[in-house]
Write a structure and sequence with these properties.
The protein has 236 residues and is of the alpha+beta class. The chain has two domains: 94 residues, Disulphide bond isomerase, DsbC/G, N-terminal (Nuclear Transport Factor 2, Chain: A), CATH 3.10.450; 134 residues, Glutaredoxin (3-Layer(aba) Sandwich), CATH 3.40.30. It is 34% helix and 26% strand. Strands 1, 2, 3, 4, 5 and 6 form a six-stranded antiparallel beta sheet that branches. It has a five-stranded mixed beta sheet with strand order 7-9-8-10-11, sandwiched between helices. Strand 2 and strand 3 form a beta hairpin. Helix 5 runs antiparallel to helix 6.
């Protein structure tokens, strides 16, 4: 057995549809019947015959060619010892993250960065605050940090309002640092990317903060001490 599929959310039977012209039409029809707002970015044959990869942003699903069954999980190549699903997700995240305009994130970077990470952050999150207190060590090690807003409790939370004030500040770096120190900021309003960042995080499967990705989309998980994070980024 060369491949194994581990299903994180189990097997979902999609609404039955009559066979159409082919697998892509069957899959598209079945998914849009259940999930009308789902934006499918790619459908292609997986390494397992009869099972198709379906990409929606950076989310990956496996669907049978008749459009009846869906799996969400990881496909491993047992011979190469590789998580093939994560390779696909990372490639999708790479495109998404590197297409972001600089106005969407707040960057703390050395003069000549060796590596860059993207961090979904919340100003009220204890481990986000701890990571930010060590930003000098990360920058000294050659690491640029690009923060994206992810108020954990949603867009109606107090943290969301705080992060809007941060992103609307004239000096966003200082405002973010003050917010993470627990200081009260002046309430500000402007055209801002906080909701957009939050939705992006949800689309990428972010559930907690901080959530860290390399510039090429590889997941580094949550908080890690500076020395561990620097080694991990260099290795990735």
């Amino acid at each position: 057995m060369k491949y194994v599929l581990t299903a994180a959310l189990g097997l979902l039977m999609l609404a039955g549809l009559p066979a159409q012209a082919g697998p892509k039409e069957n899959i598209t029809g079945a998914l849009h019947k259940l999930f009308p707002d789902m934006h499918i970015t790619r459908i292609r044959q997986s390494q397992i015959p009869g099972l198709y990869e379906v990409m929606s942003g950076s989310q990956l699903y496996y669907v049978s060619g008749d459009g009846k069954y869906l799996l969400k999980g990881n496909l491993y190549d047992l011979q190469q010892k590789r998580n093939l699903s994560e390779v696909q997700r990372a490639a999708a995240r790479d495109k998404i993250l590197n297409a972001l305009p600089a106005s969407d994130y707040i960057e703390f970077a050395p003069k000549h960065p060796k590596h860059t990470i993207y961090v979904f952050t919340d100003v009220t999150c204890p481990f986000c605050r701890k990571l930010h207190s060590q930003i000098g060590e990360l920058n000294k090690g050659g690491l640029a940090v690009r923060y994206l807003a992810f108020p954990r409790n949603g867009i109606k939370s107090h943290a969301y309002k705080e992060m809007v004030s941060v992103w609307c500040a004239a000096d966003r770096q200082s405002a973010l640092t003050e917010a993470k120190l627990g200081k009260k900021l002046p309430t500000r309003q402007c055209k801002n990317p906080v909701k957009k960042d939050f939705n992006l995080g949800q689309d990428m499967g972010v559930h907690g903060t901080p959530t860290i990705y390399t510039a090429d989309g590889k997941s580094l998980g949550g908080y890690k001490p500076p020395d561990e994070l620097l080694k991990l980024v260099a290795k990735k």
